[in-house]
Amino acid sequence: MSTVFLALQTNEDTRPIIEAILQDNPHAVCDEQPAMVKINAEGKLVVRRETIEELLGRDYDLQELQVNMITMSGNLDQTDDEMILFWKN
Amino acid sequence: MQIDLRTVSIKPLRHTFDNVARRIGADKPASRYQEGTLDMQQTANFHYRPTWAPEYDIYDASRTAIKMADWYAFKDPRQFYYGAYCLARAKQQETAEANFDFVENRGLAGTLPESVRDTVLKLLVPLRHVAWGSNMNNASVCAYSYGTGFSQPHIYHSMDQLGIAQYITRVGLLLGDVQTLDEGKRAWMEDDAWQGLRRFVEDSFVLQDPFELFVVQNVVLDGLLYPLVYETIIDDVLSSQGGTPVAMLTQFMTDWFTETKKWADATVKIAAAESAENKAILGKWLTDWRDRAAAALLPVARIALGDRTDEVMGEVVQQFNARMAKAGVAI
Amino acid sequence: MDMQVAKKKLGLKERYAVMTRGLDWTPSYQKMEDIYPYIAYEGIKIHDWDKWEDPFRLTMDAYWKYQAEKERKLYSVLDAYTQGNGHLNVTDARYLNTVKLFLSGISPLEYVAHRGFAHAGRQFPGPGPRVACLMQSVDEIRHAQTQVHAVSNYNKYYNGMHDFHHAHDRVWFLSVPKSFFDDAITAGPFEFMVSIGFSFEYVLTNLLFVPFVSGAAYNGDMAAMTFGFSAQSDEARHMTLGLEVIKFILEQDPDNVPIVQRWINKWTWRGYRVLTLVAMMMDYMLPKRTMSWKESWEIYFEENGGALFKDLARYGITMPKCAEHIALEKDHLSHQAWSTFYNYAAASNFHTWMPDEDEMDWLASKYPNSFDKHYRPRYEFWREQAAKGNRFYNKTLPMLCQTCQIPMIFTEPGDPTKICYREVDYKGDKYHFCSDHCKEIFEYEPEKYVQAWLPVHQIYQGNCFPEGTDPTVEGFDPLAAVLKYYHLENGRDNLDFEGSEDQKNFAEWRGQATKNI
Ligand SMILES: [Fe+2]
Ligand SMILES: [Fe+2]
What SUPFAM superfamilies does the annotation carry (chain B) (predicted)? Predict the structure, then answer.
């Protein structure tokens, strides 16, 4: 299984988002670097809108994630409810 | 070690980049528009010729018949670099969003007289494709023109036209449904009323001179279409028939045209002022394409204006002529 | 009747499909091949343009909204940083040389990317690729401009950056990044997408930006860190476009596979050669190191790229074979590059220096197989010489590789004691190459690569002196004339960091800051 990852800027906007991602992906590993958090996960990583909204206490559009995204790897599938990064192998 | 550096008063060695200083005539602080625009495009020592057009350099001023001693004579009066551009559009899209919400939440689409709604859908929805064509033409001017002063506004214009195509789509969906879009495309492809305009647009796709394409698309076609459809038919004629909510939904386009024509005028003016040759070329392009565009728009205008079509079209052309005369090209 | 109730809310995918998809049409007044003249000659076969999916599905209103938010944040940080003399907070003035390298080497490429994607977007008939390319085009002018704006304040206080546009088109080593992008934009639109969209953005961009940006963060450069991260937030979209384009082309026709494979091989190598500059930046130019070049290559190429090529295996695409060569070079690349720039510091727009003892120890720990054996002795010798007043400046111009345009400094794969030379005879002339890969690229398209504007050849042909220069006069100093042509000021923009104006000013200004408190 290959690793996918998502790197986000570390700031007040992303704190609850990172928490939500780690909550929804128990297999994910969080790697903190200066001003940046890289979340690595075997095979697949799912970002769920609902979990972020719960932690944020407001409506959240997954496209907002782009404001704080630094880099990623894997194929991407995005809907209103989820953003999924995955490798097929 | 964090030190309080605000207390340090040091003298800078220079105030801007050398290329900017050369162009503005002195080493003095320059604007973000200037630093982000002047000489951004490479000019010398290109390594290879395009395999897709070996007769030209990667950027080549000889692609157009317009001759300029300095292509950075073109300045955008709005001083749009990317940041200023995005901020301006973000504000406008917020207004547009509020307008759509207002019309939607109060069910105002349902209050439109049947005839007004019909006219709007028939007239507006096929214009999605005209905007799409403009998106492509502006990408073309951006890609093949010379000097960032001239090329830069075209990428913004291109994205704006994509946005306009999407706003028209939303109007179509709000007043009709997905089939309305298909019907609009069918009319665009088949109905007599639209064929002159479609031919005009397709003919513009094969133009090779980027400056001519700027004239045809942004000066001539938009210069007649926007005053006709948005300023006259929607804001005036249909509003007086109970169609004010539609004017709210197309406010983006009205405001956009008011803003962008300042840039288009300034650009024509600078090119015309450069030489008598430029002025003659511009005069010919403007006249030829104005006549074609006016003829192509006539049956489209008739959808909403009926008997008054010729009279209104005549006024729009008069206005356009006056605009060009002010920009230095009498036609 | 309330029509609002009847209307179902469309999901992201349907909504985007409706917004964008139906917009194009099949022309009937002009021929397709006249409207889109460049999409056939590369031999790529596309049967259904609508199969191209843009996974981000951004409509323009959302684009303006989020991008404006990014811009607001970015410029407020830049303003605060400038007002507070933030430049005096960087670790040490040597750091500024990474900024110079970046501004003159990389920022102009962002601009070419902007024009290149406008061209590609114009030429592809389908709305999916058109919109994705144009969005990238407008993003790329953003990157070029935010970089210039972020560095603008550094230029006011430090040397080497003052005429970077002029430098980019002329200075010898800047022909390496310039020719890379010139090569891409002059290729056909599909190759452009594979070269920049896929190979550069997807496979290599992490190696350029993540080290540069975290390097900036480590070294107290808030301006570069902010524009870097802000640009990267667009990069996520671009990388996805790059991967989608490859999948799209490969799925369209099996005949496309060998063409794409050749492009991936070529552009991975071309891109890697440009990253030589990044390698030396990471290992030598950041006063406070983030990770070594070798580590970064292992994480971002070997691990992540490995996963990518495993994923693409289902199409019959394999890892480019240059990867083996690169693996052999990773212990040497940055050291050979830095040695070269140390040699040619008289003709460059940034300063170089010899690493101090601690830094040599760091290098030895990161490169246990190569540093102490091959490079430390050389550096110690140069350092001794410099201490005696014999700082070595090489005035003999090097032979350049015809393809990547880097001086022929690299050693044979597997033998760090022997310089690697390859050559080809073509139409009565001899062409030189740094490697089998550069040679192969040339051999496939010799008519393209013979056109290369090689800085050393150009100097020898007398094309790099200011207009009106007479090289035959008594006492003619070619280096001085070349520096004039570059618009570089001898003694200020070039030479060793030790004794430079940057070093002196920075120390003095920092001193003022500490005294005032
Ligand atoms: Fe970029
Ligand atoms: Fe090479």
Answer: Ferritin-like
Question: What's the Rg (C-alpha) of chain C?
Answer: 24
**Cα torsion through C219, C225, C228, C232, rounded to 10:** 110
Number of structural domains in chain A: 1
Measure the CA–CA gap between C191 and B202, rounded to whole angstroms: 27
C and A: touch, per 3+ CB pairs < 8 A? Answer: yes
CB contact under 8 A, C12 and A7: no
- Report if residue B133 sits inside a domain: yes
Q: Which two tokens stand for residue B57?
A: 């350099």
Mean pLDDT in residue range C475-497 = 96
A75/C232 touch (CB, cutoff 8 Å), yes or no = no
Rounded to an integer, the average pLDDT of B130-137 is 98
Chain C nearest C-alpha distance from A2 (Å): 5
Tally the domains of chain C.
1
In a domain, B301, yes or no: yes
Using the Cβ of B58 and the Cβ atoms of chain C, whether some distance falls under 8 Å is answered with: yes
Collapsing DSSP states into helix, strand and coil, what is residue C450? coil
Which residue among B2, B90, B110 sits closest to C68, beta carbon to beta carbon? B90
Q: What is the chain C residue with the closest CA to B58?
A: C186
Q: Is C62 domain-assigned?
A: yes
Residue type, position B5, single letter:
L
CB contacts of C303 in chain A (<8 Å) are 3
Please give the backbone phi and psi of residue C22, each rounded to the nearest 5 degrees, phi first.
-70, 0
Q: Are C218 and C277 in contact (CB under 8 A)?
A: no
Within a domain: residue C475? no
Encode pLDDT of B153-207 as tens digits.
999 999 999 999 999 999 999 999 999 999 999 999 999 999 999 999 999 999 9
Contacts of A37 in chain C (CB under 8 A): none
What distance lies between CA B109 and its chain's CA centroid?
Answer: 28
The answer to whether A57 touches A15, Cβ cutoff 8 Å, is no
Q: Is C456 a member of any domain?
A: no
Domain-located, residue B22: no
For tokens 């990471």, what's the residue?
C282
The per-residue pLDDT for range B203-238, each reduced to its tens digit, is 999 999 999 999 999 999 999 999 999 999 998 899
Q: What is the pLDDT of residues C152-181, one digit of tens each?
A: 999 999 999 999 999 999 999 999 999 999
Distance from CA of C208 to the nearest CA of B (A): 22
CATH number of the domain that residue A40 is part of = 3.90.56.10
Q: What is the CATH number of the domain that holds C233?
A: 1.10.620.20
Q: Give the best residue of B15, B86, B108, B117 to mutate against chain C (max C CB count within 10 A).
A: B86
Q: Do C69 and A34 touch (CB under 8 A)?
A: no
For B:75-114, CB contacts with C below 8 A are 81-83, 86-87, 89-90, 92-94, 96-97, 104, 107, 109-110
Q: Give C425's strand partners.
A: C430
Q: How many domains does chain B have?
A: 1
Tens of pLDDT, residue by residue over C236-257, are 889 888 888 999 999 999 999 9
Q: Is the pLDDT of residue C117 over 80?
A: yes
Question: In terms of residue numbers, what domain contains B254?
Answer: 79-326
Tell me if B43 is assigned to some domain. Answer: no
Collapsing DSSP to helix, strand or coil, C369 comes out as: coil
Percent of chain B past pLDDT 90, that is, above it, reads 95
B144 touches chain C (CB under 8 A): yes
Q: What range does the domain containing C129 cover?
A: 10-331
B240 lies within 8 A of chain C by CB: no
Using the mean position of ligand 2's atoms as its centre, give its distance from the Cα of residue C408 in Å.
Answer: 8
Provide, as residue numbers in chain C, all residues whose Cβ is less than 8 Å from the Cβ of B107: 2-4
Report yes or no on C433 lying in a domain. Answer: no
- Predicted complex ipTM: 0.97
Contact C462, C475 (CB under 8 A): no
Residue B260 sits in a domain whose CATH number is 1.10.620.20
In A, minimum Cα distance to C306 occurs at: A2
Domain residues for A38? 3-86
Q: Which residues does chain C have within 8 Å of residue B205's beta carbon, measured at their own beta carbons?
A: 27, 30, 35
Return phi, psi of residue C220, to 5°.
75, 15
